[in-house]
């Protein structure tokens, strides 16, 4: 399998001269960054954990001294820092070729809130990325082949957004909240595909299947410890590197089309090399997409942020 992975990476076209921003500093973000650095891209890792960011950069440079990679601070749970990040990227990188909205949290034991007072899955996994995408859209338009990749998940299937309890004030289920934030990745990709269809920016969605990443590191309690143990079994989960190939493919492949969705080729799209996968039915409904955007714009407006 390792040889097949290396062969797959070898076939990825050169990304020399391209600027690629990845949210996250470890796990999938590290694997994606490592691949793209090998392909000579200018890579920016953006996240709240400075130590992990520089540790990932150090590790990448140990095997690839010529890697062009840097770290930028941003806390997706704090819209103030997201605004600062957007402003800095607008000045520093007039042309952005690829934005990978990767960072996220999953399945906390009880309902938690961000610094802005929002449900943590919604803001971290979706809202802040939605804000970043809109804040950097002109930079992406300046690229000859701009791309935005949103990270979805198998958890995004078989979910529905309950707009009468959008923020889970009446009923909160951690895994369902996580799944909804990943359903929103599908929805916003479809929405942006249509909104920016007359530009040179492609909007894509990809998921890593069931991969052994640090997304599960915060789990506590018996059932979560059992789940983490289960994920270490190769028969059930694949490596983080294998999962990252789906995102790397969406970011680099020459045959992608606007709106494409990628995930593992194996059974139930849990493991395997990249292939096109379907969208959840709920995500394709334009009314649902517009309601998501309206609610999210309203949420941002409450924080004095306007989306055009």
Write the layout of secondary structure elements.
Elements: H1 2-10, E1 19-23, H2 28-38, E2 42-47, H3 50-63, E3 68-73, H4 79-92, E4 98-101, H5 120-135, H6 137-141, E5 146-151, H7 174-195, E6 201-206, E7 211-212, H8 222-231, E8 238-239, H9 240-252, E9 261-264, E10 274-276, H10 286-302
Parallel strand pairs: 1-2, 1-4, 2-3, 4-5, 5-6, 6-9, 7-8
Antiparallel strand pairs: 9-10
What does this structure look like?
The chain is α/β, with parallel strands linked by helices. The protein has one domain: NAD(P)-binding Rossmann-like Domain (Rossmann fold). It is 43% helix and 14% strand. The protein has ten helices and ten strands. Helix 2 (28-38) crosses helix 9, helix 4 (79-92) packs parallel to helix 5 (120-135) and helix 7 crosses helix 10. The protein is globular. The mean pLDDT is 91.
Features of the shown structure:
alpha/beta; eight-stranded mixed sheet; Rossmann fold; two-stranded parallel ribbon; 14% strand; 10 strands; 308 residues; single chain
Care to give the gist of this entry?
By secondary structure, the chain is of the alpha/beta class. It contains 10 helices and 10 strands.
Question: What string gives the helices and strands in order?
Answer: HEHEHEHEHHEHEEHEHEEH
Count of strand segments: 10
The DSSP helix count reads 10
Largest sheet, in brief, is: 8 strands, mixed
Q: What is the spatial order of strands in the main beta sheet?
A: 3-2-1-4-5-6-9-10
The dominant shape is globular
Structural class: alpha/beta
Q: What's the CATH architecture name? A: 3-Layer(aba) Sandwich
The first-level CATH class name: Alpha Beta
The CATH topology name reads Rossmann fold
Low-confidence stretches: none
């Amino acid at each position: 399998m390792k040889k097949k992975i290396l062969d797959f990476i070898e076939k990825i076209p050169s990304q020399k001269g391209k600027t690629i921003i990845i949210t996250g500093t470890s796990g999938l973000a590290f694997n994606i960054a490592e691949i793209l650095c090998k392909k000579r891209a200018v890579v920016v890792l953006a996240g709240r954990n400075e130590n992990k960011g520089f540790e990932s950069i150090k590790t990448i440079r140990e095997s690839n001294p010529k890697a062009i990679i840097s770290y930028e601070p941003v806390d997706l749970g704090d819209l103030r820092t997201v605004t600062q990040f957007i402003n800095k990227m607008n000045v520093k990188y007039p042309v952005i070729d690829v934005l990978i909205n990767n960072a996220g949290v999953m399945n906390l034991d009880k309902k938690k809130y961000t610094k802005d007072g929002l449900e943590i899955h919604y803001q971290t996994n979706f809202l802040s990325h939605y804000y970043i995408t809109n804040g950097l859209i002109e930079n992406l338009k300046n690229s000859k082949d701009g791309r935005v990749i949103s990270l979805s998940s198998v958890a995004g299937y078989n979910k529905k957004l309950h707009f009468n309890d959008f923020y889970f004030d009446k009923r909160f289920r951690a895994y369902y909240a996580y799944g909804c934030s990943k359903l929103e990745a599908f929805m916003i990709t479809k929405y942006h595909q249509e909104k920016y269809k007359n530009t040179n920016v492609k909007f894509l969605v990809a998921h890593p299947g069931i991969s052994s990443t640090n997304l599960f590191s915060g789990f506590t309690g018996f059932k979560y410890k059992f789940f983490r143990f289960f994920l270490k079994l190769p028969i059930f989960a694949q490596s983080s590197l294998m999962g990252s190939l789906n995102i790397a493919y969406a970011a680099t492949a020459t045959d992608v089309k606007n709106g494409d969705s990628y995930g593992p080729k194996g059974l139930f799209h849990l493991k395997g090399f990249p292939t096109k996968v379907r969208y959840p039915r709920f995500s394709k409904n334009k009314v649902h997409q517009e309601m998501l955007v309206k609610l999210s714009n309203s949420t941002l407006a409450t924080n004095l942020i306007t989306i055009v």
